[in-house]
Amino acid sequence: MRHLLQVAAFAVIAAPLAAQATKPLDPAVVKGAETITKEDVAKRIGIVADDSMMGRDTPSPGLEKTAQYVADQFKKFGLKPGGDNGTYIQRYPLPSDDSQKGPNTVGILEGSDPKLKNEYIVVSGHMDHIGISSGQPDSINNGADDDASGSMGVVELAEAFSQPGARPRRSMIFLTVSGEEKGLWGSSYFSENPVVPIKQIVADLNIDMVGRNWKDTVVAIGKEHSDLGATLNRVAKAHPELNMAPIDDIWPEESFYTRSDHFNFAKHGVPILFFFNGVHEDYHQVSDSPDKIDAEKESRILRLIYYLGQEVGNADEKPKWNPDSYKQIVTEP
C-alpha cells in the first residue's frame, strides 16, 4: 500500500512536470530563431572576411568598414546605440599608440520587464583579425573563422532577439570588439568603461571560432564555473532538433579560458560561457577563408545560443557563480 501511495504521489508530481517539459514555445520566440539561417551566416561572413577588408587588423580601414557594417545592421534592427555620442561605435585608445581610432560596436535591446530590464546579458565576439602577411602570393588573412564567424554570429543573434515578441525580460547588449588579436584590447576597455554599470551585467555569452570542425558538438568553455553550464545543458536537451551537444573544455592545457574576450568580463565578476569549436590548420593563416565555413552547423550553434539567451533573459534569478571558481577567477576591485 505504501508503495502504491508513493507511486500515486510521484504520478501527481510528474504529471505537471511532464506537461511543463512538453509546453510549446512561444511562436514569436520560434520565429526569432528562424531568422538565423545558413544563408545569412554565409553572406555576413563573406562580407567581412572578403579580401576588400584586408584582414581587419587593429587599426585599419578594413576594421573601420567592418565596425560600420555592424553598426548599420544594429540600426536596421532597431537597437539602441550604445557607443559614444549617440552612435553605435565606442572608441578606445590603442595601448600601442594612444593617439589612434580602435572601435567597438555596441547595440542595446531593452528588456520587456520593468525591473529586470535593468539587468543585461552581453553577447560578444571580436571583429578584428591579423591583417596582411607580406611576401606571400596570397597575403590577406581573411579570418573567416577567427572571428568573422563569431562577430557575425552576434549580428545574427541581434536580428533574432529584435524580432517582434522575441525580446526577453532582461536587456541585451550586442557587442563586437576589436584588438582581440593584440591582447583583448577592445573588451578590456569595454569592461573597464561599460555602457551600463558592470554589476548590472549578469552574463557574457562570447562567440569565437564556431564555423569549423565538428558537425554536432560545440565546446562551451566555462561551463563548470557557474550555473550557466547547467542551464545550457538543459536548453540543449530541450532542443534535440538542433543536434548540437555542448561539451566541457577539452583543452585545459591551452588555457583558452584566458584567451578570448569573455575573460575580461569574468575578471569583473560576470558569469560567462565561451562558445568555441577549436583551432585548425588554417588558424592565423591566409587560408582561413569563407569557403571553408560550415554555415549550416554554425546556424545551429547560434540557435542554441539564442535559446540559451531566452532562458537566461527570462529567468527569475540571474546566473550564479560556483563559489570556488569565483575565488579563483574574479579580481575584486
Question: Can you write the helix and strand succession as a string?
Answer: HHHHEEEEHEHHEEHEHEHH
Binned strand content: 15-25%
Query: Mean of the pLDDT scores?
Result: 93
CATH topology: Aminopeptidase
Q: Helix- and strand-based class?
A: alpha/beta
Any overview of this molecule?
- The relative contact order is 0.16.
- This protein has helices spanning 2-21, 27-34, 38-48, 61-77, 144-161, 180-183, 185-192, 228-238, 262-266, 295-314, 323-329; strands at 80-81, 89-94, 97-109, 120-126, 171-177, 201-207, 217-221, 245-247, 272-276.
- The protein is an alpha/beta fold.
- The protein has a single domain, classed as Zn peptidases (Aminopeptidase, 3-Layer(aba) Sandwich).
- The radius of gyration is 20 Å and the shape is globular.
- The protein is built from eleven helices and nine strands.
- The longest helix has 20 residues, at 2-21.
- Strands 1, 2, 3, 4, 5, 6, 7, 8 and 9 form a nine-stranded mixed beta sheet that branches.
- The protein starts with a helix and ends with a helix.
What is the fold's blueprint, element by element?
Layout (H helix, E strand, L loop, with lengths): L1 H20 L5 H8 L3 H11 L12 H17 L2 E2 L7 E6 L2 E13 L10 E7 L17 H18 L9 E7 L2 H4 L1 H8 L8 E7 L9 E5 L6 H11 L6 E3 L14 H5 L5 E5 L18 H20 L8 H7 L4
Parallel strand pairs: 4-5, 4-6, 6-9, 7-8
Antiparallel strand pairs: 1-3, 2-3, 3-5, 7-9
Helix pairs in contact: 2-5, 3-5, 3-10, 4-5, 5-10, 8-10
